[in-house]
Amino acid sequence: MENKWLISICAGWQQKQSILNAKSLGFKVIAFDGDINAISGPLADLFFPIDIFNHTAIIKKIKQLEIIPTVAVSFISDLGMRSAGIINDYFKTDGMSEELSNKLTNKKLQRICWDALGEFNPEWASIKNSSMKELTSLSKKFNDKVVMVKPIDAAGSKGIFKINKLSVNDINLLKESLKYSRKGEIIIEEYINGREFSVESFWSNGNCNILAVSERIILHDKTASIIMTTNLTYEIDKIIKDATIKANLALGVRFGLTHTELIIDKNKKPFLLETAGRGGGFYVFDELVQKVTGEDYSKIFIKQLMKQELVENENKMREVTIKYFPSRLGVIKSISGFEEVNKITGIKAECFVKDGDSTNSCLSDADRIGYMLVWGKTREERDYLFKKANSLITIDYY
């Protein structure tokens, strides 16, 4: 049988499970990552340390190998999605196109699509420079409202700032945010106070299966410190799911995985933050979704890419919480509890640092220094295990 080749754009730790699943299901995998020491590189059949943004070099290498890829994909990473789309277009695969990948990685394009729906958007604007003239105009536009400043195309909560009253005094914050945008553009949007949620979805033939709805506890208005499944009223659950489906369809999603973040304000009105064309990162897709549903949706997604028959079982709906340990500015004095909690059924935890390591303040998702994942058949069981794990794990600083 002729080999089916999957192109994995990125080969970091978040791609490990999907690359292994692709191989177990019969794909040959070629992985590309600018880091020659990328953790998942050795797991692929072929690995090349080529910058993931250099789609021209990646296409050239694929042609040199005389391989016709079945599909290119960027598992759990926004950064490689555009290159994957360009490769899919070049080789005429049925994978995500460059046009769709742009919409799923560009907050400005998403706002434009949702403006056309006439709902889900807060007041917003985008700028390509942070001149005094621009700031003066924007400060009048937002009229003393609290705003969030974000790069239009960054990931992992990088370059995000909350400003209580936009003025010309904030020019340095805007310049800092611009540094994180590859396109050199930022978006400024009205801050919405409310409950924040993330929604994991799987799409097939234009139909959406909502896999998990989780509430997000946000640290410093930037990065999630806790993500947990939660019991919602029928009304709120329907508002969240309806908004997610409408928002995804407006972007052109018809197959594959999406991760959507939104806020429900005090009037129960949904405001979308963003949608990504992938599973949620930092163990949301690989761990939380799998524990909630009892299914490995990485495998189901790969079967979809291979055009195999899809069999989705009824979700088991277990209760799950992920807690992330944020870094602090300082030096790690001692770490304890991780080995002990990993012996308890229903708890999984990992620390990414060791005694003596220096760490920075937590400014983005990348500054997390560990996590614990807790699950149970009921909320009471989950919460009991969470409390137990939380009491056993300590990370002390000098």
Characterization of the model:
With 398 residues, this protein is an alpha+beta fold. Helix content is 30%, strand content 30%. The chain is built from 12 helices and 19 strands. It has an 8-stranded antiparallel beta sheet. Helix 1 crosses helix 10. The longest helix has 18 residues. The mean pLDDT is 93.
| Rg on CA atoms, Å | 21 Å
Q: If helices are DSSP runs of H or I spanning 4 or more residues, what is the number of helices?
A: 12
In which range does the helix fraction lie? 25-40%
Classification by helices and strands? alpha+beta
Overall pLDDT metric = 93
For the largest beta-sheet, the strand count, sense and barrel status come to: 8 strands, antiparallel
Main-sheet strand order equals 13-12-9-10-11-14-18-16
Q: How many E-type strands?
A: 19
Roughly what fraction of the amino acids lie in strands? 25-35%
Layout of SSEs?
Elements: E1 4-9, H1 16-24, E2 27-32, E3 46-48, H2 55-64, E4 71-73, H3 81-91, H4 98-103, H5 107-117, E5 124-127, H6 132-142, E6 147-151, E7 161-163, H7 171-178, E8 186-190, E9 194-204, E10 207-219, E11 223-229, H8 234-251, E12 256-265, E13 270-276, H9 284-293, H10 297-305, E14 319-326, E15 330-336, H11 338-341, E16 347-351, E17 358-359, E18 368-376, H12 379-392, E19 394-397
Parallel strand pairs: 1-2, 1-4, 2-3
Antiparallel strand pairs: 5-8, 6-7, 6-8, 9-10, 9-12, 10-11, 11-14, 12-13, 14-18, 15-17, 15-19, 16-18
Helix pairs in contact: 1-10
